[in-house]
Amino acid sequence: MKLLQVVTLLGAFIEAAVALPSSDPLAPRACTTPKLRKEWSKATQSERTSYINAVKCLTTKPSKLGLSHRLYDDFVWVHATLFPQIHSVPAFLPWHRYFVQLYENALHDCGYTGNAMYWDWVADSSAPSKAKVWDPVTGFGGNGNQTSTTWGTNCVLDGPFKNLQLKYWNTEVRPHCLLRVWEPGYPEYNITEMLGASYTPEVMATINAETTYEGWHNGLENGPHGAVHQGVGNFAGDMGPQLSSPNDPMFFLHHTQVDRLWWLWQQQNPQARTLAYGGVREDGTTVATLDDILPMMGFAPDAKVRAYMDVKATNLCYKY
Questions:
Q1: Domain parsing of the chain, residue ranges
Q2: Which positions make up the signal peptide (predicted)?
């Protein structure tokens, strides 16, 4: 009898110990009330207005890094500086998932009470330039001035960011207005406007047929992800040179969509894909693991990849 009591008590102790929360604030733990991230056109006008006002607020706050620029520019500087470590590598997806979360947190600090939003460019791929997200009243404004071929003159002409002034171009200090140069499309060469043919539902269906993380990640990053950057920014717009692409506030709707597509792929087989990860790191030889570090250069705590694999973890806790 005593032995049975000891075993029972020991089992209860172990169960309680396992249930204790981790001391690591970024350790994955399941959330119970995930937040909903909406597609921009599905949000209410008050939600859209609040989001845009919070983005503008970021341009009024000082750098968290102590640099001679604004909080808005912190996101650009960190992304540009870390570019080789976070692109064309397995960390691309979890690093940008963390980055979008940091942006959402910053918007909250500016009074926004909603969640990150996305532009579903797959749904709009047949006519990307007609997407509601470009509306000058309810969206981010449209294309830049196309009457000049001189760099720095393709300023966005309408919408809430037409007067936005930016500091960086790639990693250089080159003050300029918000620039957009939509790919016009050349039917005679079978090139569609804003390269929409590169991110159609059919293209995504082919990518989603990939069963490995490495295959899926490479297909998305080097295909639709890059095509959207090029389609919106071309070579002279802020979304074009990907190092400083967070200059354009559309970057975050774009990358929330990238995150959503990853989540959808994970949801096809959650047990196998939630922690599916692999490939080679930026040195070209080291195998990537879930214990690799996602660097943030002091802008936020560095974190392990595993902390950003599951959107149901309490440090994320959202759904689409």
A1: 29-319
A2: 1-19
